[in-house]
Amino acid sequence: METHEALYQQGVARMEQLRKLQPRTGETLQQKMEQNGITRRDFMKWSAAVTAMLALPLPFSTLVAEAAELADRVPLVWLHMAECTGCSESLIRTDTPNLDTLIFNHVSLEYHETLMAAAGWQAEENLEHALSAYKGNYLLAVEGAVPTANNGAYLTVGCKGHTGLHIIKEAAEGAAAIISVGTCAAFGGIQAAAPNPTGAKGVYEVVDRTVINLGGCPPSEKNIVGTLMYFIMFGKLPALDMFNRPKWAYGARVHDNCERRGRFDAGEFVEEFGDQGAKDGYCLYKVGCKGPYTYNNCPTERFNHHTSWPVLAGHGCIGCSEPNFWDDMADFEKPLGRQLLHGLDATSDTVGAVILGATAVGIGAHAVASIFAKSEEE
Amino acid sequence: MSKRVVIDPITRIEGHLRVEVEVDENNVIQKAWSSSTLWRGIEVILKGRTPMDVGLIVQRICGVCTYSHYRCGTEAVENALGVKIPLNAKYLRSLMQTSLYMHDHIVHFYHLHGLDWVDVVSALSADPALAAQEAMKYTANPIAAGEGDLRAVQERVAGLVETGKLGPFANAYWGNGTYKFTPEQNLIALSHYLKALEIQRIAAEMLAIFGGKSPHPQSIVVGGVTSVRDMLSPARLQEWKQKHQIVQDFIIRAYKADIVMAAAAFGAEPSVLGGVNVKNFLATEDFLLSDGQYMFNQGVIMNGDLGNVSDLDPDMIAEDATHAWYKADGPQHPYDGTTVPDYTGFVERDTVYGKLPTVDGDGKYTWVKSPRYNGEPVEVGPLASLLVSYARGNQVVVDSVNGLLEATGLPVGALFTTLGRTAARMLQTVIVAEEGLKTFDAMLTNMQSDEATYVKPEIDSSKEYVGHAMIEAPRGMLSHWIRIKGGLVENYQAVVPTTWNAGPVDAQGKMGPYEASLIGLKLEDPTKPLEVIRIIHSFDPCMACAVHVMDYKGQNLGEFKIDPNGF
Which terminal CB of chain A, N or C, has fewer other CB atoms within 10 Å? Predict the structure, then answer.
């Protein structure tokens, strides 16, 4: 692993490069912030928060700020495949003050079907233009799985009637980097659950490129924007885990930072929804929480401007950022200890079997973590 | 000489939609085809799973009306198992529904539909001082429409336009003659478009308070709700109420005002005065106000006859797949539907853009089936819901509709137009916002003596169960149908609002609402078919919802086997 010093130098060099490029929109970030009533001070606080979120030391926050300002040099193409649009919905609900959204818009958004004004022929033209004009330089974000059965015929887009599969392959070729936004694009998601009638696959399975996988149904907007920022800042992907998820966001289990963790360690469990334990905020493991098997930053980042997250609302985590969770973690309101998962059955069985012995549970769960912590460094 | 116009993708909707029309030498639409081009097969996936997971899975049909499917799927299971959930759970579900509507309709009008009404480029030539005065005409207390606000918005957009790089606004149909707002009115609406970005976030937070997150909330289970701590927390309740106030304020001072402004500006525009050519409407009862009392009524209106509303009969619903990419021999009730994919692809032909693959209108051409009520196509959605309640004499709705007609000077007939459909959605939002507080108060009262939020459901695996649920989703009447056998899902079908509206022509040659609404529409420029997009958007398309529809009964799953070496 490289030192922070080397990484910082890489970021500085990248900023140098970006500064030489033409901005794609006339407005500077400064102007946009002013129009949105965001002060320089708000911006610096945001940069510091993003720095911390990316698990970088504080001195990087000037680099984050600079990268945000230069983000308009980076074209973004966002494609919709087999999906429900929940990921885009997640993104447009980002925090107030809406710096995250602002940064997202500041990146030159060349194509996004849910947001763009153009339609039909003109929309398709925008996409073709972006793919050729910015070849080799654009970021490709994909929302949704790629249907592959029947030669991909279960999805066509555009006047030319190309399949999603065709479009993804073409767009992937000229992309500087590819980001799968959400569990469908990353791992196939709900349509890929058994028996997967459309042959839905994650993007990484159909393109011959490294794809960064932002698991989650939907992924938190923080994870989307943080990944964009990392790429803009360093021109490369962050350290990834065994499923190509950024370690800064998916490095810890939901269980590790859960607000109900103390209850788990104390052996205090909700036995049935709505019982006294539920009213008192006891641990949800026995009503099916998959937090011990799920890697994501939900407990620390929460959703919708930190308003809540499923565990706060009394429902266990369903493991939505893990591959094949629709099959592997069902039935969602029962503990998982009863079945195989990722070949770690022995450990998860331990968790289930000794559920009433809190110490043993803790040890079992930590053992799972240590196995997962092994990652693929770039 | 007729000309074919292909519009794909229809952007600013949920999902993937292609619309094709054929215009005559005067550019008047003679034929129209609505085609959904994505199929996901979620009901197949439900087979053999526990009914307890149904809500979480069907929720992923849609990331926009995400909560509607979650609730409807869960309630279909409760109906099948005979589970009676506690009153608090009903109230909490209703409050989440209120939050969803306030979010969904604002996003639809401003961010999805708005650019069909608002010419962004025209706003640049507005006089902000005059625009500020103009805004006062539609509400005594406008929001984000003071001279300073408007000037800042104008400068912001001017900066964008000067660079020639419009970003997400690029290559749209700006300048089309059917845009009717003055530059000042465009500027007001544009300012609200931007303000609404902020407001919709707050509305999503309302849903997240009791739902855990939005989209894809996670606090409903078969038997009740899980967010009991939030319900019992005075701080949380106050948080909801405060956000509600902010959003409601925007709904009244911006959304309502903008629709009144649009009615004045577009009231004589031919392309928005049609668009309701299927005059049959259907809606179900929903939004619990207090024990047993609902905000909107159920019923069916045929042939636009408001003097005659009949009760909604679930047995009258059937789906036809003659022109959908499925094998099927005739109309089928949702409990007995079969759906076997039968993709036939496109046909190459001349279009206004040259040779292109186009739909085979005589054959099969979409992944959406055609639901029919007693054999007839019907429109569902906010317009249908309001018309049914209006015809039933629901006082709140009657006052609200009459109030709008008075404010705009339009006749009742104006409801049966594209403008009316868009206005109805706004009126529904206003009613939901105002009346929804009654639900909130009823819950507080009930909580004084009752903290129950859940009853444990029981499944006897030796028994078979059948059940369904019907609710109003933001896009209209939504129904889910389930069969349970051996303790597992044996059969599942969802008949969703967009399917009702977007379905293809049926075996009798009857068009669904999307297609029928386009017939007779004159296009200013067939290469820039803004009028088509405006009409289609007024239905608020949600294609992922429409095309999940899949039932495995009688189907050979072997047909779905995938060659692992295919790629």
Answer: N
How many angstroms separate the CA atoms of B240 and B440, rounded?
10
Determine which of A167, A183, A273 to mutate to test the interface with B (most B C-beta atoms within 10 Å). A273
Residue B495 included in any domain: no
Torsion sign over Cα B412, B418, B423, B426: positive
> B212 vs A312: CB contact, 8 Å cut-off?
yes
Number of Cβ within 10 Å of residue B124's Cβ equals 18
Q: Establish whether B548 is an annotated binding residue.
A: yes
DSSP A23: P
> Which residues constitute the domain of residue B259?
3-490+501-546
Q: How many residues are there in chain A?
A: 378
CATH number at residue B43: 1.10.645.10
Percent of chain B at pLDDT > 90 equals 77
Interface predicted TM-score (ipTM): 0.90
* CA dist list (Å): B51 to A120, A325, B73, B142, B492: 40, 17, 9, 48, 10
Residue B556 forms part of a structural domain: no
Chain B residues with CB under 8 Å of A258 CB are none
Longest CA–CA separation in chain B, Å? 73
Task: Render pLDDT for B416-442 as a digit per residue (tens, 0 to 9).
Answer: 999 999 999 999 999 999 999 999 999
Task: Give the model confidence (pLDDT) of A291-325 as tens digits.
Answer: 999 999 999 999 998 999 999 999 999 999 999 99
Q: What is the pTM of this model?
A: 0.91
Closest CA in chain A for residue B62: A84
d(CA B454, CA B363): 49
